[in-house]
Amino acid sequence: SGASSMSGKLQGCSTRITEKFPQALYIHCASHSLNLAIGDACNISSIRNTIGTVKEIINFFRPSGKRESILKKKIEELGSTSKKQRLMRLCETRWTERLDALISFKELFCPIFFALEEIAEHGDGDTSRNAFALMNSLKSSEFIISLTVVQEIFSCSHNIATALQNPHIDLSSAIEMTSGLSNILKNKREDSNSFQTLYVLAQNLAQEIEVEIKKPRTAKIQRNRSNYDVDNVEDYYRISIFNPFLDHFISQLDLRFLKHKHVLSKIENILPSRITSINQSGIEETVKILCEQWQRGDAIEILIVKELELWQEYWRTTAITAPTSFIDSIDCCSSTLFPNIRNYLEIGAVL
């Protein structure tokens, strides 16, 4: 893909650019970065297996008009409140579309289960066996918990994922949005009631297909699955699914977005709307960080500090309304009087 061609460690375009221009700051497409963060978070085995099962069930129904008609009949019989009459495809790349598919799947959970049950009882050969296996997958406590958790957590990111697809979004806005998402997820992680609410929803879903949420038997010798020494079922799934999934998602967001936050916060200090409130130590710290990122000698660093002081004084005394964006600020910055500041404004404009 274009993104992988850009970011490849050995032959990627970004690697070749940084070889020639070591000071270049590589920033991935914000929307793709969120997709990667979500995708990596889904490498938690329980979540990965659940999404795999959802995909299998969707692929079981969609190609067959006969099976879809059985599903539609169950939707009508059970009086489902969902407006969906068929399952959506599980998109491989766009997580906004994948989330929509997961939401519709959960809304149709009971009709799907009873449609599989009917096909398992009255279908022929392989179709019956496949339906029976998929039906048993839906009865799994791990599946029901994981489906409930993944829909809730990804719903938090849905609007942000849509916003990040805007071609005009800048790094500052992307970091601000993902930082907010990260804080929401951290609050959910720390709030004991967050999972309790999801656990009740999962229990209700299980009751509708007449199964009970149970924790798996603890093996004496562990081979393929982690053992958690807890007796309470809710605590077991909190520790084994909810917490690891949130931790992984948060770490991926921080890794892919917030690593540039420090440099960005400093370059934003030179904006006219910000510079007037920065004290002397703030000016010196800003210049130090920017010179470290875009290497300059000590002598140049001192000159830039003085240039920034002059820039600050200009905006404190002028009657012109201070611009709040890099692009607007460039038009107000003389390349003769403020050459270094203009350079940083131009860098900020393309981030």
Automatic annotation (TrEMBL):
Superkingdom to which the source organism belongs: Eukaryota
PANTHER family (alphabetical): 52 KDA REPRESSOR OF THE INHIBITOR OF THE PROTEIN KINASE-LIKE PROTEIN-RELATED, DUF4371 DOMAIN-CONTAINING PROTEIN
Record's protein name: 52 kDa repressor of the inhibitor of the protein kinase
